[in-house]
Amino acid sequence: MSLRKIGRGAAVAIDPRNGDILAIASVPSFNPNVFIPEVSLTDWKRYTEDPFSPMFSRAINPYSPGSTCKIPIALAGCLSDSWKFRFPCGGGAQYGSKFMKCWHSSHGSVDLSTAIKVSCNGFFYRYANHTDIRNIQTMTSLLGMGRITGVRITGEKPGNIPNPEWLRMQGHLWSDAFTALVSIGQGATEATPLQMASVTATVANGGKVYQPRIIKKVIEHDGEVVWEEPPKIRHDLTKEGITAEQVEIV
Fold it and tell me: Annotated catalytic residue: which of 29, 53, 64, 67?
């Protein structure tokens, strides 16, 4: 009901212990009963011509993740020594002729945990550039961002984590400003609600990246299990160069 009050949006809940999708919702939605045994022309036109696209699943399609992207960036800094340092907010940072602002006039000099707590843009601009875009690429890839999760739902899109090679194909050269944009989930950065739920679950369980699972098993009427998908760990961050202590800090 809370989601429907928003009008348009999506929500995903994942069990951090095994990757099970406990809930996945997108609004506005449609009534699947109208498709049984077959959809009428009236209902089909009503859904497909609706400007709010009720048959489009927002949960598995990409959007600008905004400050939620600071969590994977924080983890990326654990692949270097960035997580150890304090960085100034400065109310933002200057890149060429552009001053990229923080939402606050200045948070002062802050450490990683505090920067996450207050969602300091100025800190993350500097943190991300100290970390380097290559480490960000590595971490976001480990977390499953920028590619489909492989969940058993049709229509999933991969999103995009911009990088120097991608930008070169657009006819531009990478700069620190682009890294800063990625650090706050802006610019051409895109992720799905499902991907970001998976990132959150990974932090919650101490670093295990599970394959999101929406179907546990298929059972015949007589109880025979005809198909089963066990939990699958795609990556364990504590085996990829960061420690359990660093995950806990994040």
Answer: 67
